[in-house]
Amino acid sequence: DAGVTQSPTHLIKTRGQHVTLRCSPISGHKSVSWYQQVLGQGPQFIFQYYEKEERGRGNFPDRFSARQFPNYSSELNVNALLLGDSALYLCASSGGPDNEQFFGPGTRLTVL
Amino acid sequence: DQQVKQNSPSLSVQEGRISILNCDYTNSMFDYFLWYKKYPAEGPTFLISISSIKDKNEDGRFTVFLNKSAKHLSLHIVPSQPGDSAVYFCAATSTSGTYKYIFGTGTRLKVLA
After folding, report:
1. Which residues of A97-110 are buried (b: 16+ CB within 10 A; e: fewer)?
2. Fewest Cβ atoms closer than 10 Å to its Cβ: which of B35, B46, B48, B82?
3. Are the Cβ atoms of B44 and A103 closer than 8 angstroms?
């Protein structure tokens, strides 16, 4: 069975640009969460979606947005990129919002 | 405000000995705790979890202990193996809330052969 998949693996952008990251959950999982991991820190919660509805939002600016599609895949969008947005972006899926989360390999975003 | 703390950034242990990784939390609303292992260039891999109604959970070589009064949990790995070398994160959540995970900053474990 395929685990959580994320694309792209790596991405380089410049300040002010926009980026879209994609995540496909484990088959049968309906909840997707997004995390940002900066070097030397633990993952920081950004969003959780369940059945296409936003269930939780972390302490991130409005430049960060996300959505979940009918097939439960998800996109994370970041506008007006800043140097500080450089990080590993992790997607996690779970059967429901209160089940254990399984992480994908992440997308490494570098903002120059 | 760091609600989940792992105060040891790194730990070295001889192969075959016990590894003990520690984690402290401050939020009394947390009632579910997890440990993840992370290798470079991979996402975190779920290891073991514990609910606040228990004080111990065991899975093979991995045991997690929870001391609610001290707001402290620990992960014991016995015996330690070189393949256990990775960064270990503890995470906490409230199952009555949005179920977002709050992670510690991680402990890098090196198991020496």
Report:
1. bbeebbbbbbbbbe
2. B82
3. yes
Total CB pairs under 8 A between chain A and B: 59
Q: How big, in percent rounded to 5, are the helix, strand and coil portions of chain A?
A: 5, 50, 45
Which residues of chain A are at the B interface, by a Cβ-Cβ cutoff of 8 Å? 4, 33, 35, 40-45, 48, 55-56, 58, 90, 92, 97-98, 100-106
A56 with B45: Cβ contact below 8 A: no
CA-to-CA dists, residue A95 to A26, A29, A38, A50, B24, angstroms = 9, 4, 27, 9, 28
Residue B3: CB partners within 8 Å, gap ≥ 6?
B25, B26, B27, B30, B92, B102
Stated as kind and residue range, the H or E segment containing A56 is: strand A53-57
Radius of gyration (C-alpha) of chain B in whole angstroms: 13
Q: How far apart are CA A54 and CA A36, in angstroms?
A: 17
Structure tokens at B70: 């001290």
Q: B1: pLDDT confidence band, cut at 50, 70 and 90?
A: low
- For A72-106, the pLDDT digits (tens) are 999 999 999 999 999 999 999 988 766 788 999 99
Tens digits of residue pLDDT in A14-68? 999 999 999 999 999 999 999 999 988 999 999 999 999 998 899 999 999 999 9
